[in-house]
Amino acid sequence: MPLKKDIVCVCFQRSREQIEKVIRKKNLVRVLQVGDAIQAGTNCGRCKPLLQQIIDDIYTVNEGLFANTDNEQP
Ligand code: FES
Fold first, then answer.
1. pTM above the 0.90 mark?
2. Domain containing residue 14
3. How many domains is the chain built from?
């Protein structure tokens, strides 16, 4: 039996991979939107900080591609 790895939302058995996939596919930016999409975070709420961290990770990486370089020293 395969291990259930990377489960972020225990209540609904949602993995980090599933959560990242739906965030990217639907361009979700808020934890509540993730809950509406795949229920994660809508029961006990313990996973909400992790959901926010995943959102932050995804958009921080994307922001890095468009980082403002105006403040760079010559
Ligand atoms: S662990 Fe995600 S709602 Fe409970």
1. no
2. 7-65
3. 1
